[in-house]
Amino acid sequence: METSAKVSASKYNNKFKLNDNFMIIDFEANFNNYEEKILNNYKIFNYTCPVCGAKHSLSRHAKYKRYTCILYKNTICFDTIEILRLKCSSCGKTHAILPSNIIPYCVYSYSCIFTVLFEHFLDKKSVLKLSDKFNLSFQTIYSFISKLNAFVKDFMYVLRVLLFIKNNESTSIIYILKIVKDTFKNNQFIIVFFNITKWMFLMKKFLNTIPKPIWIGVCNT
Ligand SMILES: [Zn+2]
After folding, report:
1. pLDDT tens digit sequence for 178-187
2. Which of 145, 143, 141 is nearest to 132 (CA)?
3. What is residue 8's three-state secondary structure?
4. CB neighbours of residue 141 within 10 Å
5. How does DSSP assign 30-55, residue by residue?
6. What is the count of structural domains for the chain?
7. Are 50 and 71 members of one domain?
8. What is the Å distance from ligand 1's center to 102 Cα?
9. How far is the CA of 80 from the centre of ligand 1 (A)?
10. pLDDT tens column, 124-141
């Protein structure tokens, strides 16, 4: 019997509309090494084209600027990153290559959001206190909590698949955040979540849109 969490996770796998946006998430790339590994890479990219399946067919096409907020020395800093688009010589589609610590369509990186959520739920810091500490509006902090709420079912589903939670066990958001904080280092949880659901954790944009107007794929060499 399918659990509601399974049904919920399967919604990610709906067919996307062709002609729209394609993103390849490179889980080996992050905000710190993106320039060296992707942006300044003039060699062949080893990704498989997510549209036509061609291998070694992707070459540099264009760059665009993307705003992002990252956590640096316990402060949330506003920054920009140049993102590279590749074009497939076989089907002509273009694909943006994203580092894995950025949530598509969200200006705040995982490190910002997780830090605020951990401090709120695990260290019991109030929204007011966090707003002062990180210079964030109440609205922004509540939007992080709202993202988390939108993903609670799937968050629990992934932790059940990984056997952190027993099948029939109901648990609290504090407990599951604690598992993530204590067990997964760096971006490990994001990678595991993506492998199981084929969706980026906390990416609310298009979450309930069917069919998906975008395609999110993983680096596949
Ligand atoms: Zn292609």
Report:
1. 999 998 887 7
2. 141
3. helix
4. 21
5. -TTTHIIIIIT--S---PBPTTT--B
6. 2
7. yes
8. 24
9. 28
10. 999 999 999 999 999 999
